[in-house]
Amino acid sequence: MKKVVTKKSMMYTVDLTKIDGDGAFPCPKCGAVISPEDETEEAYAIVETTVKKDELAELVLMCNRCRSKIRLTGFLMQPEI
Ligand SMILES: [Zn+2]
Question: If we measure between CA atoms, which residue out of 72, 53, 52, 55 comes closest to residue 11?
Answer without folding.
Answer: 72
